[in-house]
Amino acid sequence: MNFGYAAQGLDVGQGSGRAARGTTQNGLRLYNERLALSLIRQYGQLPKAEIARLTGLSAQTVSVIVRHLERDKLVLAGAKQRGKVGQPLVPFKLNPDGAFAIGLKVGRRSGDMVLLDLTGNVRAILRQPYHFPTPKQFLAFAEKGIKTLTTKLPKAMRGRISGLGIAAPFELWNWEEEVGAPHEVLEAWRDFDLMGEVAKLCDFPVHPCNDATAACSAELLFGRGATVPDYAYFYVGYFIGGGLVLNGSLFQGHTGNAGALGSIPVPRHGGGSEQLIRSASLYTLEQALRESGLNPNMLWNLENEWSDAGKLLDDWITKAARGMAQASAAIASILECREIVIDGAMPPNVRKKLVEATAQALKHTNMSGITPFNLREGAIGRDARAIGAASLPLFANFIIDRDILFKEAF
């Protein structure tokens, strides 16, 4: 499957047709517009005087920028705020209808699609459960989903769809035994050009990303990640994965596979070691349920709270937490991150128990020489990968480098 992570990542401006930086007057204006939009998104709303203070731009330049953003319907003027002295200030906020994006998640047990607006609100969502998809089946879901989500918008707004993001696992064709799919089904994905085939289904840019990295992006842009410049992020899906945020920016590495936290070696019960993916992935819980005669589909049914899993769930949480505590200590020893975030495709009550169990396991982990960090739950949950995929076009078109923003906050 040709995915091109390194060339098609979260770099600002790629695939958008809008200049990120430039020596031309037009390129500089677009850069400043994106900077203003990013600051407004970060703070919720800002008057022009505050935008000028934060950016160092002149009041006249900011007035021109905001006028262009209003003209393009990307920002809305709020109610006037009267201070003790001077003229009333008019705060500006993002216009939810200013831009939209579609996110497509390729999963081993389901496909999801979301329609996201400029402020990060999910306008519509589609789900397609399956045992494991063939490329043909998944393309059929994508084609139908693009048409369905597009028609959710009034005709006049459909031109405001800025792109489509794809979140897919790294090397989807691997882990044949764990996934339980026929060999020929998995092999069909190996040389399948997912990005190219999906691009044929729509007339807007397509942006691919690793699924766990996309989930980390959702936390960064729309969760609580905006308040912390450095953290590691676990996403517990069929296979556990992760992401890294450094200096307020998503770090992907030169191939796009940085933050592959599921590959971290952890102690194995009974001796030796194994990768975290063997102890903290949902496929192990699925196998335990199946072996006990229970229907593992409860894990992929969004209405199910997993209470029927009983002791099997408790045992899985204990084992997963033990491995995640060891992995967290290893990460913190290298990155000295302020937080480690745990999210996943699970009910909120299960995620809460997992985080609490990991915190308890950390108390029994040797942390000598490691700077303490905060362990917390992610804010997005099941839909993080699809929302993160949809954030890619918004990031490429409307958001500036986050390390610039964090200079003010920190």
What can you tell me about this protein's structure?
The chain has helices spanning 25-43, 48-55, 59-71, 135-150, 176-179, 183-190, 194-199, 211-222, 282-291, 310-335, 348-362, 384-398, 402-409; strands at 46-47, 75-77, 91-94, 100-106, 110-117, 122-129, 161-168, 206-210, 231-236, 240-246, 249-251, 265-267, 273-275, 339-344, 374-377. It folds into 3 domains: 25-97, Winged helix-like DNA-binding domain superfamily/Winged helix DNA-binding domain (Arc Repressor Mutant, subunit A, Orthogonal Bundle), CATH 1.10.10.10; 98-215 and 386-397, 2-Layer Sandwich (Nucleotidyltransferase, domain 5); 224-379, 2-Layer Sandwich (Nucleotidyltransferase, domain 5), CATH 3.30.420. The protein is built from 13 helices and 15 strands. Residues 1-23 and 402-410 have low confidence and may be disordered. 39% of the residues lie in helices and 19% in strands. The radius of gyration is 22 Å and the shape is globular.
